C-alpha cells in the first residue's frame, strides 16, 4: 500500500526536519561553547602555577658549516636576542626585520631602540609585524624613527572578502636580515617571556644563502606595500638575483595570497622518504589527514617516528584538538613525547640524519595551509646531528605517553575530544 502526502504535508514535514536540524546544530554549538569555556577556565586557574615553576634544560648553541654557509642553532632566547641585537647595532647598510609578536616589554624596547638607532645613523631599515598578533600592544609603543620603513600587516584585508579562506592568513614569520650577509629565522617572537621562559629554536646563517631570507622579506614587503586601491603607500624594496644555486639550503615560503603552501609538501616528501627515523618538534600538532596518514605509514614500515609537543601549551584549545590524534598514533607505535614544566615553541624536524627544517611553521593546518610562514630546508648530516642532539635533550625533559595510559583517560575527556573534533579544520 502506497501512502501519498499532500504538498502541504510535505512542506510541513520539511519545515519540521529543518527546525529540528537547526535546534540540533544550536544545541551542539552550545555544548562546544560550554566545553571550551570549561577548558579555558581550568587552564586559567592552573596556568599561574605552571609559569611559576617553568624550568627546562638548555641544550645550548650549535655551530656547523653547510655548503658555503656558517650556521648556528639557538635554543635559549637570551643567547639569540643578544646576537640579533649585536648584528643590528653593527649594521652598515640594511636591516630587514619581520616578526609575528613584538611585545612592549624590556626585550621589545631593546629591539625598538636598536632599530631606531640603526635608522638614525643612516641604515635603511624595513620592519614588518603582524597587526592581529599585536592587537593587545598599544600602537604608541611602535614609536619608530621617521626613517624606518614600517608595514603593520593589516588585520582586515580585501582578500578576506574576495579570496579563498586559506588565502587570508596572518604573517607568522620571524626573520632578520642584516647587510645581506647574516640572517636569522625560527620560532622566536620578540618578548621577555620568550627570552627565558619558553624553549624555542632559531637558526642564524652567514653566507650566500642569506639571499633566500632577503628575497622572502623583499617579496613580502613589495606584495603588501600598496593600498587597498593599488596605490603605493611605501617605498619599494629592490629585489636581487641570487647569482648562485645551492640545493642543500632552501627557503620554503607559504604565500596564502597566492594559495601557495609548499611547507606542507616539503614535510610530506620528507616523511614519505624516511627509512630510519623521523624526529618532529612542534608547538601545536593538528595535522591534516594526509600528514597523519604519512606518519602512520612511516611507522608501519618500521620508521622510528617521534613527535615532541608541549604537554600544556599556551593555547588550551590546540592541546585538546591535538589529543584527538593520539589514539591512532599510539596504536601505530608512534612515540609521543610531552614536554614538561615549560612551553616548547620550536618548529623543527629531522629525518634519517640527513634532512632538516627549521622555521616558523607548526605541524597544524593554520601553519601548513593558512598563514604566511618561512623555514630553511637543509640537507646536511652535521646540522641534522645537532638537531638530533637537541631533540635528545628535549626528550629528557619529556614524558612518554603510553597507549595504556591514554586509553584509561576519563570519559569526560573522551567526550570533550569528540565535541571539539569538528574544529580541527579551522586550526
Structural account:
This protein is an alpha/beta fold and 427 residues long. The chain is globular and about 85 Å long. The protein has helices spanning 7-52, 77-89, 106-120, 158-162, 192-196, 210-223, 262-273, 289-300, 316-323, 326-331, 365-369, 381-396, 403-407, 411-420; strands at residues 62-66, 69-74, 94-99, 124-130, 149-153, 175-178, 182-186, 198-199, 202-206, 249-254, 277-281, 285-286, 304-310, 335-339, 343-344, 348-351, 355-359, 363-364, 373-379, 398-401. It contains 14 helices and 20 strands. The strands form four sheets. It has an eight-stranded mixed beta sheet, with helices on both faces. Helix content is 40%, strand content 22%. The N and C termini lie far apart (52 Å).
Order of neighbouring strands in the sheet with most strands: 1-2-9-7-6-3-4-5
The strand count comes to 20
The stretches of 5 or more residues where confidence is low (pLDDT under 50) are: none
Radius of gyration: 24 Å
Task: Describe the structure concisely.
The protein has 427 residues and is α/β, with parallel strands linked by helices.
Descriptive keywords:
single chain, 427 residues, alpha/beta, eight-stranded mixed sheet, globular
Helix/strand layout:
Blueprint: H1 7-52, E1 62-66, E2 69-74, H2 77-89, E3 94-99, H3 106-120, E4 124-130, E5 149-153, H4 158-162, E6 175-178, E7 182-186, H5 192-196, E8 198-199, E9 202-206, H6 210-223, E10 249-254, H7 262-273, E11 277-281, E12 285-286, H8 289-300, E13 304-310, H9 316-323, H10 326-331, E14 335-339, E15 343-344, E16 348-351, E17 355-359, E18 363-364, H11 365-369, E19 373-379, H12 381-396, E20 398-401, H13 403-407, H14 411-420
Parallel strand pairs: 3-4, 4-5, 8-15, 11-13, 12-18, 13-14
Antiparallel strand pairs: 1-2, 2-9, 3-6, 6-7, 7-9, 10-19, 11-16, 14-20, 16-17, 17-19
Helix pairs in contact: 2-3, 7-8
Amino acid at each position: 500500500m502506497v501512502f501519498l502526502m499532500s504538498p502541504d504535508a510535505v512542506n510541513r514535514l520539511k519545515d519540521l526536519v529543518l527546525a529540528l536540524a537547526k535546534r540540533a546544530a544550536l544545541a551542539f554549538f552550545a555544548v562546544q561553547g560550554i566545553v571550551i569555556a570549561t577548558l579555558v577556565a581550568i587552564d586559567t586557574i592552573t596556568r599561574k602555577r605552571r609559569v611559576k615553576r617553568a624550568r627546562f634544560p638548555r641544550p645550548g648553541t650549535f655551530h656547523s658549516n653547510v655548503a658555503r654557509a656558517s650556521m648556528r642553532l639557538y635554543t635559549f632566547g637570551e643567547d639569540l636576542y643578544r646576537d640579533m641585537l649585536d648584528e643590528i647595532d653593527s649594521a652598515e647598510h640594511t636591516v630587514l626585520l619581520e616578526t609575528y609578536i613584538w611585545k612592549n616589554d624590556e626585550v621589545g624596547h631593546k629591539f625598538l631602540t636598536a632599530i631606531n638607532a640603526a635608522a638614525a645613523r643612516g641604515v635603511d631599515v624595513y620592519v614588518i609585524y603582524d597587526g592581529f598578533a599585536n592587537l593587545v600592544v598599544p600602537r604608541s609603543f611602535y614609536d619608530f624613527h621617521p626613517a624606518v620603513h614600517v608595514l603593520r600587516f593589516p588585520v582586515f584585508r580585501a582578500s578576506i572578502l574576495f579570496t579563498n579562506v586559506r588565502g587570508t592568513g596572518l604573517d607568522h614569520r620571524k626573520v632578520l636580515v642584516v647587510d645581506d650577509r647574516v640572517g636569522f629565522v625560527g620560532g622566536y617572537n620578540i618578548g621577555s617571556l620568550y627570552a627565558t621562559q619558553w624553549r624555542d629554536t632559531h637558526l642564524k646563517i652567514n653566507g650566500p644563502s642569506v639571499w633566500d631570507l632577503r628575497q622572502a622579506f623583499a617579496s613580502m614587503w613589495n606584495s603588501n606595500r600598496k593600498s587597498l586601491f593599488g596605490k603605493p603607500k611605501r617605498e619599494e624594496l629592490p629585489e636581487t638575483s641570487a647569482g648562485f644555486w645551492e640545493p642543500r639550503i632552501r627557503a620554503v615560503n607559504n604565500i596564502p595570497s597566492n594559495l601557495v603552501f609548499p611547507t606542507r609538501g616539503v614535510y610530506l616528501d620528507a616523511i614519505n622518504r624516511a627509512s630510519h627515523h623521523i624526529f618532529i618538534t612542534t608547538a601545536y600538532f593538528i595535522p591534516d589527514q594526509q600528514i597523519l596518514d604519512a606518519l602512520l605509514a612511516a611507522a608501519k614500515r618500521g620508521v622510528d617516528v617521534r613527535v615532541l609537543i608541549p604537554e600544556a601549551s599556551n593555547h588550551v584549545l590546540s592541546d585538546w584538538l591535538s589529543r584527538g590524534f593520539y589514539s591512532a598514533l599510539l596504536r601505530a607505535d608512534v612515540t609521543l613525547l610531552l614536554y614538561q614544566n615549560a612551553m616548547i615553541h620550536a618548529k623543527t624536524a629531522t629525518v634519517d640524519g640527513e634532512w632538516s627544517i627549521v622555521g616558523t611553521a607548526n605541524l597544524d593546518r593554520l601553519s601548513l595551509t593558512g598563514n604566511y610562514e618561512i623555514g630553511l630546508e637543509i640537507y646536511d648530516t652535521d646540522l641534522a646531528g645537532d638537531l638530533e642532539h637537541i631533540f635528545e635533550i628535549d626528550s629528557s625533559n619529556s614524558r612518554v605517553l603510553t597507549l595504556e595510559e591514554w586509553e584509561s583517560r576519563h570519559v569526560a575527556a573522551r567526550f570533550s575530544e569528540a565535541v571539539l573534533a569538528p574544529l580541527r579544520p579551522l586550526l
